[in-house]
Amino acid sequence: MANQDFSTSFLVPQTPNRVFDAITNVRGWWSEEIEGGTQKLNDVFTYHYRDVHRCKVRIVEVVPGKKMVWLVLDNYFKFTTDKDEWKGNTIEFEITEKGDQTQLRFTQHGLVPEYECYDVCNNAWTGYVGSSLRDLIMTGKGKPNPKES
Fold first, then answer.
1. Beta partners for residue 11, in sequence order
2. What is the pTM of this model?
3. CB neighbours (10 Å) of residue 123?
4. Buried b (16+ CB within 10 A) or exposed e, 6-25
5. Domains and CATH numbers, the chain
6. What is the distance of C-alpha 68 from the center of its chain?
7. How far is residue 33's CA from residue 2's CA, in Å, rounded to a whole number?
8. Chain mean pLDDT for the chain
9. pLDDT in tens, 12-33
10. 11 pLDDT band (50/70/90 cuts)?
């Protein structure tokens, strides 16, 4: 059976270090509401979007210019029955050089089609990673969730 974890990737004409720096700027592409450190090994940060989604993440692997891995410590979705979805998942950013371009592969290990949130999460990550993070890498400006008033 093929790996069913959610994964997406793209190529950009930027350096691996520029891609890595953008990944660590989580407030610049995911949400301006991020609280905590987002760059170093063992940093812990929280994300929330209204009363719809909250999660707590620890950075468990950092290889500058090559890789970053997050571990989801806690998670809440208002719209799922199973309150354990995402807990224990790892979110991996792999950076590889492909000729004169850099590929970023994003994978959430454990986010599988059987999850209640799969379709919503698939669409959200596709937007955050494939559009907002890519824009941050290319132009210096992403499209994160704005601060709530």
1. 103
2. 0.94
3. 10
4. bbeebebebebebbbbbbbb
5. 6-139 (3.30.530.20)
6. 10
7. 35
8. 95
9. 999 999 999 999 999 999 999 9
10. very high
Q: From residue 26, give the alpha-carbon distance in Å to each of 2, 32, 55, 73, 92.
A: 30, 8, 14, 17, 14
Answer yes or no: is pLDDT of 149 > 90.
Answer: no
Structure tokens at 15: 């350096």
Can you tell me the distance from the alpha carbon of 23 to that of 142, in angstroms, rounded to the nearest whole number? 11
Tens digit of each residue's pLDDT (9 = 90 or more) over 115-126: 999 999 999 999
Q: Coil, strand or helix: which one is 96?
A: strand
- Indicate the residue type of 47: Y
**pLDDT > 70? residue 90:** yes
